[in-house]
C-alpha cells in the first residue's frame, strides 16, 4: 500500500503522506484556508467551523482541519458556498466580539481582522446588544485575559493540556455566556505563559510585558537564536529600528528544536539590549578616573599592555555567550598571532547544567557552551572540562586579562561579583555590552559589544546542532562592535603602528 | 512636443486702435476700485477689511488649524491611545505613550500625547483616522511663540487651553465600541449625528 495520497486541491494535484488532513496539505501547497482553532502544534478541535472547504460528492461543506486527505478526493476552497460559509462564520464569531481594536494589542496581527478583510461580510445583520463579559482579567504574572474578545477556539485550553500538561484553563458556562478561565482564583504560573498569547488568534490573551507598549505594525522582525539557555530556540526579535528599541521576542517555527514554542525566560532576553542598559562608548580608567575614549585608543592601550607584559603574562577569560565565528576570530588573533596560551572559561559557579524542564528550558544557561569548548579544545589541544575557571585565572597572576563578558544579565547575575576577583591585575579589558560593567572597580578599559540580535553567526546548542543567528538589527548604540570587528580593528591598529614605527 | 503657431498681428496695424480695448478695460476697473474706495472713505459702505491683530479675525469651524483633544463627560481625554493618528501622520509629528487606565472600562489611555507642531503639515489625517473623535483640528490659526519648548504641544495643552474655554466634548456616544459594525443607525443616533459638528 502506498504511504502517500494524491488528491486535487483547487485543480492542483497535491501529494501528501497518508494520514495528513486537508488543512496540512493546503499549508504545504500554500493554499490559504482561513482558520481559527486549528494550530499546527496542537490537536484538532474543529470548534470554530471556519475552515470550510467544498468536497466533490459530499452532501455539505467539510472542515479542512479534521478532514483526512484520501486518494482522488476533489477539494475546492473558492466556491461561492465556501465564501458564503466564511462570511456567516465570521458574522457569528463577531456577534459578541467587542470590536475594541483601538485598545487591543492584537490589532494588526489578529485573525479576526485579517479574515474580516479577506472574507468578511462587512454588513452585520445583528441588532441585539452584545453580551458583556469580564475584561482585563489578571490571569498570571505575565498574562491578561479579555473574555469579551475571546472566540472560544480552545487553542489555549489545548495548549495547557497538551504542551505544558498543567490543564489550568477551561471553558466555563454555556452558549453566549461561555468564557475561558482558570479554576477558582488560580493563576497560571508556569514558564510558558506567553505561548498562550501567541496561540490566541485574537486579542483575548495579551502579554503584560508588551501590553500597550507599541502597536505591532511599527515593529520590524528579524530571525535570531535565543541566548537564554543551551537549547537554542529559534526566535523572532521585534524591534523599532527608528527608535533603536527592542520590544518583544516571539518563537519561530523550527521543528527540530523548539517546535512552535519558547519559554518566558527566553522572552526576557532582549531587555538588556536597549540603550539604557548598554555601554554606549569605550571607556578607560586614566589616572584613576573613568573617561570616554575612542574605541581605537582603548584597543591600542590593550595591545601595548600585552606587548609590554608579554603573551605568557596575558590571560583570556571567555564566557559562552558569543558566536562560533567570534571565538574563531578572537582565538585566532590572541592565541595564534599574539601567542597567548592562558585561556579560561567564565560561567556560573554553581549551575545544574544537565537539568531540563521537559519542554525546552535547560540548566546550562549559556547558548554556546559546545561552541566555546570546541574553540578552546583547538587552542589548548585537549578536552576542556565545563567549569568556572575565573579563580584559576586569578591564581596564575596574569598581568593582562581580556574578558569576553556574559551578555544576558538574568542568566549571569554573578557578573559583577565575579569581576571583583580581578581587582589587582594591572590591565583588565572588559568586552561587554552591559553598562553595569562600568560600576566595577579595578577595571582598566571597557569595549562596547553588540548584542545577540545585532550580529549574525551561529551557536552550537546542547547537542552540538548548528543554530544560526540569521539576521541582524543595527546596533542600539552606534559604537558597539562584534568580537570579530573588535579583533579586526585591533589587528589593523597593530599594523598601522608597526608601519609607523618602521618609517 | 506640440508647437502652437500663433499668428502675429499685421505690422501695418494701427497701434492706438489695438490698445483701445485695453485702455477701456483698465479705466472701467479703476472706476470700480475708486468708487468703492470713496464710498468706504465716506462711510457709505461697510468695509470687509479687519485690522488684525488689533481686531480679532475668525475662521470657520472646519478650518484645519491648531489641534485639540476632545473630552469625556467626566473631563478626561477621549483618546484611547490607539496610535492610528500617529500611523496616519505623514509628518510623523504625533508621539503617544500608552498606559493602563485605573478604570477597566477605559483600559487604555495616553500617558503622554504630544504633537510637534513645527513638523505638522495640517493635513488633517489624524482627525480622519481617529476612531473615537478624540482629535480635531480647530479654527485657531495664529501659532506664534518664542520658546522652543512650547512648539511641542502636550496632552494638557491640547485638551485644555484658554481658547478651548474649558475643553470640548464630543457628541459621539462614549461606549460606541459596543455597537455592532455596519448596522443601520437608529433614529436617536441619526439625530445625534445630524447635530454632530465642530465647535
Describe the structure.
The complex is a heterodimer of chains A (about 500) and B (about 200). With about 500 residues, chain A is of the alpha+beta class. Chain A is built from twelve helices and 22 strands. Among the domains of chain A are: about 5-95, Ubiquitin-like (UB roll), CATH 3.10.20; about 280-500, 3-Layer(aba) Sandwich (Rossmann fold). Helix content of chain A is about 25%, strand content about 20%. Chain A has a seven-stranded mixed beta sheet with strand order 15-14-20-19-18-16-17. Chain A has a five-stranded mixed beta sheet with strand order 2-1-5-3-4, with helices on both faces. A three-stranded antiparallel beta sheet of chain A has the order 6-7-10. In chain A, a hairpin with an 8-residue loop joins strand 11 and strand 12. In chain A, helix 8 packs parallel to helix 12. In chain A, about 45% of the residues are buried. Chain B is α+β, with helices and mostly antiparallel strands and about 200 residues long. A three-stranded antiparallel beta sheet of chain B has the order 2-3-5. The longest helix of chain B has 27 residues, at about 15-40. The interface of A and B includes residues 99, 101, 123 and 213 of A.
- Mean pLDDT, all residues of chain A: 93
Spans of at least 5 consecutive residues with low confidence of chain B: 177-185, 189-199
- Kindly state the mean pLDDT of chain B as a whole number? 84
CATH class category name of the domain at 279-502 in chain A = Alpha Beta
**Uncertain residue ranges of chain A:** none
Percentage of residues assigned to helices of chain A: 10-25%
The whole-angstrom Rg of chain B is 27 Å
Biggest β-sheet of chain B, characterized? 3 strands, antiparallel
Order of helices and strands of chain B: HEHEEHEEHH
**Class computed from helices, strands and strand pairing of chain A:** alpha+beta
Biggest sheet details of chain A: 7 strands, mixed
Main-sheet strand order of chain B equals: 2-3-5
Amino acid at each position: 500500500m502506498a504511504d502517500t495520497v494524491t488528491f486535487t486541491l483547487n485543480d492542483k494535484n497535491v501529494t501528501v503522506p497518508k494520514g495528513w488532513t486537508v488543512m496540512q496539505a493546503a499549508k504545504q501547497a500554500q493554499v490559504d484556508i482561513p482558520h481559527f482553532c486549528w494550530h499546527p502544534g496542537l490537536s484538532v478541535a474543529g470548534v470554530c467551523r471556519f475552515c470550510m472547504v467544498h468536497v466533490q460528492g459530499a452532501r455539505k461543506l467539510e472542515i479542512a482541519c479534521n478532514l483526512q486527505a484520501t486518494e482522488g478526493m476533489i477539494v475546492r476552497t473558492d466556491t461561492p458556498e465556501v465564501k458564503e460559509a466564511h462570511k456567516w462564520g465570521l458574522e457569528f464569531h463577531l456577534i459578541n466580539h467587542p470590536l475594541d481594536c483601538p485598545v487591543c494589542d492584537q490589532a494588526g496581527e489578529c485573525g479576526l481582522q485579517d479574515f474580516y478583510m479577506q472574507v468578511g461580510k462587512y454588513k452585520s445583520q445583528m441588532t441585539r446588544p452584545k453580551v458583556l463579559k469580564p475584561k482585563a482579567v489578571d490571569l498570571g504574572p505575565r498574562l491578561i485575559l479579555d473574555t469579551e474578545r475571546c472566540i472560544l477556539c480552545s487553542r489555549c485550553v489545548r495548549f495547557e493540556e497538551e504542551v505544558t500538561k498543567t490543564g489550568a484553563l477551561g471553558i466555563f458556562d454555556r452558549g453566549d455566556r461561555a468564557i475561558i478561565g482558570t479554576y477558582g482564583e488560580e493563576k497560571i504560573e508556569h514558564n510558558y505563559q506567553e505561548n498562550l498569547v501567541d496561540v490566541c488568534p485574537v486579542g483575548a490573551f495579551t502579554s503584560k510585558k508588551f501590553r500597550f507598549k507599541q502597536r505591532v505594525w511599527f515593529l520590524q522582525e528579524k530571525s535570531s537564536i535565543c541566548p537564554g539557555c543551551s537549547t537554542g530556540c529559534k526566535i523572532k526579535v521585534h524591534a523599532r529600528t527608528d527608535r533603536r528599541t527592542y520590544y518583544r521576542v516571539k518563537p519561530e517555527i523550527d521543528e527540530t528544536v523548539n517546535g512552535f514554542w519558547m519559554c518566558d525566560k527566553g522572552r526576557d532576553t532582549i531587555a538588556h539590549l536597549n540603550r539604557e542598559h548598554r555601554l554606549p562608548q569605550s571607556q578607560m580608567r586614566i589616572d584613576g578616573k573613568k573617561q570616554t575614549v575612542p574605541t581605537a585608543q582603548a584597543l591600542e592601550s590593550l595591545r601595548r599592555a600585552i606587548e609590554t607584559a608579554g603573551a605568557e603574562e596575558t590571560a583570556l577569560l571567555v564566557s559562552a555567550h558569543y558566536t562560533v565565528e567570534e571565538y574563531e576570530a578572537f582565538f585566532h588573533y590572541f592565541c595564534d598571532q599574539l601567542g597567548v596560551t592562558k585561556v579560561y572559561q567564565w560561567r556560573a559557579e554553581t549551575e545544574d547544567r544537565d537539568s531540563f524542564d521537559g519542554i525546552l528550558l535547560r540548566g546550562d544557561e549559556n547558548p554556546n557552551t559546545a561552541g566555546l569548548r570546541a574553540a578552546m579544545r583547538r587552542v589548548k589541544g585537549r578536552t576542556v572540562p565545563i567549569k568556572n575557571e575565573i579563580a584559576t585565572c586569578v591564581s596564575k597572576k596574569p598581568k593582562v586579562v581580556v574578558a569576553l563578558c556574559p551578555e544576558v544579565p538574568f542568566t549571569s547575575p554573578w557578573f559583577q561579583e565575579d569581576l571583583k576577583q580581578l581587582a589587582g591585575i594591572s590591565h583588565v579589558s572588559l568586552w561587554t555590552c552591559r553598562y553595569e560593567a562600568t560600576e566595577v572597580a579595578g577595571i582598566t578599559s571597557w569595549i562596547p559589544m553588540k548584542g545577540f540580535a545585532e550580529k549574525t553567526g551561529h551557536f552550537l546548542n546542547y547537542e552540538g546542532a548548528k543554530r544560526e543567528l540569521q539576521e541582524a538589527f543595527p546596533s542600539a548604540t552606534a559604537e558597539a562592535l562584534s568580537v570579530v570587528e573588535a579583533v579586526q580593528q585591533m589587528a589593523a591598529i597593530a599594523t598601522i603602528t608597526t608601519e609607523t614605527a618602521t618609517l | 512636443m506640440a508647437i502652437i503657431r500663433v499668428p502675429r498681428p499685421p505690422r501695418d496695424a494701427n497701434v492706438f486702435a489695438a490698445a483701445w480695448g485695453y485702455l477701456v478695460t483698465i479705466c472701467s476697473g479703476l472706476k470700480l476700485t475708486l468708487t468703492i474706495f470713496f464710498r468706504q472713505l465716506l462711510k457709505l459702505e461697510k468695509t470687509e477689511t479687519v485690522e488684525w491683530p488689533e481686531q480679532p479675525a475668525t475662521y470657520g469651524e472646519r478650518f484645519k488649524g491648531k489641534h485639540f483633544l476632545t473630552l469625556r463627560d467626566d473631563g478626561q481625554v477621549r483618546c484611547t491611545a490607539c496610535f492610528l493618528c500617529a500611523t496616519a501622520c505623514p509628518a510623523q509629528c504625533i508621539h503617544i505613550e500608552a498606559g493602563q487606565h485605573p478604570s477597566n472600562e477605559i483600559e487604555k489611555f495616553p500617558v503622554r500625547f504630544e504633537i510637534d507642531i513645527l513638523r505638522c503639515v495640517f493635513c488633517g489625517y489624524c482627525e480622519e483616522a481617529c476612531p473615537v473623535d478624540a482629535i480635531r483640528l480647530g479654527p485657531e490659526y495664529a501659532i506664534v511663540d518664542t520658546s522652543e519648548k512650547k512648539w511641542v504641544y502636550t496632552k494638557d495643552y491640547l485638551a485644555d487651553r484658554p481658547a478651548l474655554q474649558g475643553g470640548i466634548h464630543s457628541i459621539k456616544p462614549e461606549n460606541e465600541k459596543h455597537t455592532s459594525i455596519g448596522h443601520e443607525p437608529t433614529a436617536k443616533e441619526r439625530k445625534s449625528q445630524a447635530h454632530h459638528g465642530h465647535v
